[in-house]
Request: fold
Amino acid sequence: MEKIKVMIVDDSYETRNNIRQLLSFSRDIKVTAEAASGEEAIMLAGELSPDVVLMDINMPGIDGIKATEEISLSVPDTIVIIMSVQGETEYVRMAMAAGARDYLCKPFGGDELCETITKAYENEKKRREKITPLSAKGEMKSRVITVFSTKGGVGKTTIACNLAVSLARSSKRRVALVDLDLQFGDVAIMLNVSVKNTISDLVKEFAQMDASLIDEYMVTHFSGLKVLPAPVKPEYAEYITANHVERIINELRETYNYIIIDTSANFHEPVLTSMDLSDKILLVSTLDLPTIKNVKAGLDVMDTLNYSPEKIHLVLNKASEQFGIKYKDFESTLHKQIWSYVPEDSQTVVTSANKGFPFVMTRTETKVAKAIIDMGYELMKEMDGGSSKKSPLRKLFG
Reply:
């Protein structure tokens, strides 16, 4: 394969030389340029279009964050990986918001450096191969995906948030996440976004509601995702009707390519409306008997609603056979094949939720993150004209 072309950006000659030495041992990576400042990096990136830029944060003049932002806008096919001695959350946030694909804390070893570069490059190549572009005419192709379960505590919101962030970053399209768990929605907390207005404030302006008004109520996550939060108080949920939800979704279709909807664990009218309007429903389950019973009942309800089998994807979260229930028995009971397996990784999931950083951004090397990222790719292929018959089980655990 062709070598990955890398540009090193650091105001220290000694640091650039050390990184060059570390990369010299790799047969797949070639250093094609160096820059000692943000200004020089922006100029050289435009001229040379390297595959990967290793960018230091702290530089005089234009710093690494600003340079990353400029390169991401002017040379979108170039991947930027930030390097810094600071590993604090705020620096990671700023780097990702500027368009960086990964973040390396100094000092790092040669293996870690090469692995990070290779992984970022392969992920970008995979994204380009799998994503179907918008039509030549540029019409909006909007898809609605509702994440639902008939049982609470199965990880529905975790999947919805990380899937939405993954789509926003990998598809390079406009993605909205709507929290329709109207009484106890946790999307804003899980994504650590500041909430000023919510869906309950939006519906007060129902008569004037259009796409631009809705956008004013959306909160921007640093991944580029737009979030419409749930009400701050449970009692506000009663003011939001199925008509409100239908109008909001239809307006969002005008300006967003993907609309992810997180729901409560029941068939209330707003939830039914979101499912009616959805292109896909991700029905989340775990391998315990109470959840399986409830999910089977949910599938029966969807059958009476005449939802096509292709519309409903069964997602098995915290997937493991170690507690006595086999995957084939689970599928036999529900009369439906598992579409995606998300492995158990409580440490990654809980830490991510507590810090407010989606693990699809900060822990991309974990199996749980890869499962969600792959889920996003599969949805993009299915709904943008292609289809995949590859088994998610073989893909994730094989």
